Structures are given as structure tokens and as C-alpha cells.
UniProtKB/TrEMBL annotation:
Name under which the protein is recorded: Stability/partitioning determinant
SUPFAM superfamilies for this protein: P-loop containing nucleoside triphosphate hydrolases
Pfam families the UniProt entry points to: VirC1
CDD domains in alphabetical order: ParAB_family
Length: 228
């Protein structure tokens, strides 16, 4: 089963939000998702635990397991077990530079590097991409620009975006700052559940998540086809 690792050595880039959005839309297609929370903040694990305690997600196809306490070299075994229990595996790595993220990337089919449009985020993004390239360049990856405004953006943000797109492979889609994405975390819901509850407009958020998911799965399929 496909494994996607979300990696960024700088915190606050939206890793967990992205993981939830991708899992939400894969589940909406009828697929099962196993998420490994390798971040010691355990945001994914708390989201999953809280929704169960609130009586939601009993029939959900989304499972979350704590991978923050296992040794760096054991993440590969955790990923292997997850592959056997779901149709899609998502690893939410820690927002620091560490060996566990590197090992997770090695056992993944694709890596997404979320980044905000700031100089510091760009520097950390370049570091993460260099780490992947040092691993032999065998792991396909793309950079996803996150937390952008839908209309007004500063000149500095445009310039950072231009630097990213000229140096690194990026998604055409950007992950805007939207109420629907915040509602997933605030209300411990998937995007589909947020929509059903009428807590936020979800059309744009779901379209963005679906586009990113389709791009990632398409890249994985293309790689598998080229490898025979």
C-alpha cells in the first residue's frame, strides 16, 4: 500500500493539517488510512483520541498510532505493519531534523514537504530536500506551499514562492488558510464531517486536498509503472 511521509524540519508549516486533509479525502473515497504520528506533540493522536471520546469516528476508516516514542531505526518496521492494515499510510514526522524522518522517508513511496512563504521556512525546506537527495534521489517528493491567503499576498511572499518554484519540485496547488482546515482540528472531524455538520464551507478545502492527493497517488503509480 502507498506510504506518504510529510516531512519538514521546521515546526508550524501545517504538517498535521495536511495529514488530516489527505486522510479525510482518501476515507471519503472509501479507502482505509493508517496514520503514524511520529511527532512528540502527538497532535494527530490527540485528534483521534478526542473524537473517539466524543463519540465520533467509531466506524471511521482512519486509524492513528503513536510512533513518537519508538527508536529511529524502528520506524521502518512500524511502516511495514501499517502497510498490512490499510490502503494508505501517512507518516506525520516531527518538526525537527532527525534520523527518524530520514528513515521514514526511505520506506515511503512519496514525501511531501509543506512550507510557508518565509525565508526561514525556505531554508529548512532546502535542508529537507537535500536530505532526500543524499538518500540517493530514489524517493520522489514535492514541496507544498501552505498557509497562504486566497487573495492578498505580500511582495516578500511572492518572491519566496518564486525561489521555491525555481529550485524545487512543487505542487501547482497551494494549501490556503481556510476555516474548513481549522475546523478539522478544532472539532476533531474530517472534512466530510465538517461539511455534514455545517461548521464551515468545505468546497475549496476539499478540492485542494483532493488535488494534492490525486497528484501524489499519480506520481506513485507512475513510478511503479516505470519500475515495471
Amino acid at each position: 500500500m502507498p506510504v506518504i511521509t510529510i516531512a519538514q524540519s521546521k515546526g508550524g508549516a501545517g504538517k498535521t493539517t495536511l495529514a488530516l486533509a489527505l486522510a479525510s479525502e482518501f476515507e471519503a473515497l472509501g479507502g482505509s488510512v493508517f496514520m503514524l504520528d511520529a511527532d512528540r506533540q502527538n497532535s494527530l493522536l490527540n485528534w483521534h483520541r478526542d473524537r473517539r471520546e466524543e463519540g465520533r469516528g467509531g466506524d471511521s476508516l482512519i486509524t492513528v498510532e503513536d510512533a513518537s516514542q519508538i527508536r529511529d531505526g524502528e520506524i521502518g518496521a512500524a511502516i511495514k505493519r501499517a502497510r498490512e492494515n490499510a490502503q494508505l499510510v501517512i507518516v506525520d514526522s516531527e518538526g525537527t531534523s532527525n534520523f527518524k524522518t530520514a528513515y521514514a522517508a526511505m520506506d515511503s513511496d512519496f514525501v511531501v514537504i509543506p512550507t510557508r512563504s518565509s525565508r526561514l521556512d525556505l531554508e529548512r525546506t532546502v535542508e529537507t530536500s537535500e536530505m532526500l537527495q543524499k538518500m540517493g534521489g530514489g524517493v520522489p517528493y514535492r514541496v507544498l506551499i501552505t498557509q497562504t491567503g486566497q487573495v492578498a499576498r505580500s511582495r516578500a511572499e511572492w518572491e519566496i514562492d518564486a525561489q521555491i518554484s525555481s529550485a524545487l519540485p512543487i505542487f501547482k496547488e497551494q494549501m490556503h488558510t481556510l476555516d474548513a482546515f481549522r475546523a478539522m482540528s478544532n472539532f476533531r472531524m474530517t472534512l466530510a464531517e465538517v461539511e455534514q455538520a455545517g461548521l464551515a464551507k468545505t468546497e475549496k478545502a476539499r478540492r485542494i486536498a483532493q488535488s494534492i492527493l490525486a497528484d501524489v497517488l499519480g506520481e506513485i503509480q507512475n513510478k511503479e509503472a516505470s519500475n515495471g
